[in-house]
Automatic annotation (TrEMBL):
GO terms for cellular component: membrane. This is PGG domain-containing protein. Keywords: Membrane, Transmembrane, Transmembrane helix. The chain crosses the membrane at residues 91-111, 131-156, 177-200. PANTHER family: ANKYRIN REPEAT-CONTAINING PROTEIN NPR4-LIKE ISOFORM X1, CASKIN. Residues 84-197 form the PGG domain.
Amino acid sequence: MGTHKLFTTTFIDKQRNSMLHLAGMLEPSKKISGAALQMQRELQWFKEVEKVVQPSYEEIKNKDGKIPREVFTEEHKDLVGKGEKWMKDTASSCATVAALVVTVVFAAAFTVPGGNNSEQGIPIYLKETSFMIFAVSDALGLFSSSTSLLMFLGILTSRYSEEDFLKALPMRLSIGLITLFFSIASMLVAFTAAFHLVLFHRVNGSQFQLA
């Protein structure tokens, strides 16, 4: 097993391509949707192969006079461009949604259900459980949507170098999407609490008048 591994990691073909040169070549893939995610997978594969070959093989040149990293960069030039476009399109769409959620929850914070007490200036239903649910979920929605918006803006202003596709961009995209979904869920909870609070008191008020 050790001999086989040594042979594989030190193998050089007729074009003087080492195992690392071959790992740097682009492999057509239909399994992963999104050019940016495919670029991440390609980088992960190249890094893993880089770990098992001898350090000196990173500087070996093939017949074209290129080291493995240069082969990787040349082979993935188009994929980097497609990945940048995919990331920007996704981030732009999600940033629009996040900005809309920020606007809605921010406005809701100053338009409390039931209004304020004219004398003291505090919310009328301040002691109600539904009001506390509304306040907390609205605050969480504002925080998470703002975080999401910042993540997507970070993606749009990124340098889009090869290494960015390995961790930085996927991490920002993941955080942005998670916080965006959370902000939408918080907004729905706030709406439900406000609706229940207003409707509950209106129904009770109507029943009191009828009685």
